[in-house]
Design goal:
five-stranded mixed sheet, alpha/beta, Arc Repressor Mutant, subunit A, 347 residues, single chain
Length: 347
């Protein structure tokens, strides 16, 4: 019975913290109603969290007659997370709080050698954290969105541009500058798919493919059943090195083709293959230099008479920002899970 009671207290505490993370500041009364907890239980959790420094308490700014309720919110001292998006031309770093609010963002041109690239990412992260309007906070997690296939162990496999990415051990490099930080690598198309599902054009789709034609290659990100799907070996969708049919040029070559009928036919074949293989709600398409009016006309024309059914196509809403947005969401989840584990273990 004591074990069950302890487990129940921990579960209720996690639910309260999760609610404040997802929904923002709230009064004790509203939290109790939302979570179905008694006022006494909620009050005990709030008192513990305030004493431990996990929460802040402030008076509501809402108007009205009578005493204003006090609101509970997560304290900034819980730390921040960061996302890094690396591509052939630029590097972007975004620091957010654990609720996903952007606190700082920096973009720089990408160098073409490993040493300079590693040092630049380290410095950008340090600078982005130092720019915050408070003492440099704890950096809990960093997620890097990169143009590469990533295996189950989190190591780089097939690498796009910049090719020097393969020479960098990001886990060691970031731990050296930010001891104890949790580091995660994600393919940029996977990150973009996650972003479009969370806050882009695919929010109402349960299963879809994101096809991204970048500056140096092509990638496919998959969301199946509402979840990012990377496969048992974390390589699902990494098809840039493959060729379709009798084509000698791999799919990555689409990035370098002029936007002629040959380009649209290749892209249309890929859209049909992915959609028909997985029976999707639709396909999100993004290419750095495609005009929506043009491709929304050309792709359906190319698929006419070949597709087994009408395929729902949507242009990516977040465009070039999508990998950074997706990486930030993953960093937030990683940092939050780590925090909850620390709290549960009493660390």
């Amino acid at each position: 019975m004591p074990f069950a009671s302890s487990a129940k207290r921990q579960d209720n505490r996690r639910r309260v913290l999760d609610a404040l993370r997802h929904d923002g500041p709230a009064s004790r009364a509203s939290l109790a109603r939302l979570l179905g907890l008694s006022k006494a239980t909620l009050s005990a959790i709030a008192s513990e969290a305030l004493e431990a420094g996990w929460l802040l308490e402030q008076e509501s700014r809402a108007g009205g007659v009578g005493r204003r309720p006090t609101l509970l919110s997560l304290t900034p001292a819980l730390g921040v997370v960061a996302a890094v998006d690396i591509n052939v031309k630029s590097i972007a770093v975004r620091v957010t709080d654990l609720r996903g609010k952007t606190l700082s963002e920096i973009t720089r041109s990408a160098p073409d050698n490993a040493g300079a690239l590693q040092a630049l990412v380290q410095d950008m992260l340090k600078s982005a954290c130092s720019d915050l309007d408070r003492a440099t906070p704890l950096l809990r997690a960093v997620t890097l969105s990169i143009p590469a296939a990533i295996d189950k162990q989190g190591q780089l496999n097939a690498v796009g541009q910049p090719a020097c990415l393969v020479e960098i051990d990001w886990y060691s490099a970031l731990d050296a500058r930010f001891p104890g930080v949790l580091v995660r690598l994600v393919n940029n198309s996977d990150a973009a798919a996650l972003a479009e599902h969370a806050q882009g054009v695919a929010a109402d789709w349960s299963s879809f493919a994101y096809i991204g034609v970048g500056q140096s290659g092509l990638g496919v990100g998959l969301v199946l059943g509402g979840e990012l799907y990377t496969g048992s070996r974390f390589g699902a969708g990494q098809i840039g090195a493959l060729a379709l049919g009798n084509d000698e040029q791999p799919l990555d070559g689409l990035a370098r083709l002029p936007r002629t009928a040959a380009f649209y036919w290749q892209l249309a074949r890929l859209v049909m293959l992915v959609d028909h293989l997985l029976d999707l709600d639709g396909v999100v398409v993004h290419a750095v230099d495609l005009d929506y009016a043009t491709w929304s006309r050309e792709l359906p024309t190319m698929m006419e008479g070949h597709a087994l059914r009408r395929i729902a196509l949507r242009p990516a809403a977040l465009r070039a920002q999508a990998p950074l947005v997706g990486a930030a969401r993953l960093a937030g989840e990683t940092g939050w899970v780590d925090l909850l584990q620390q709290i549960a273990s009493g660390r």
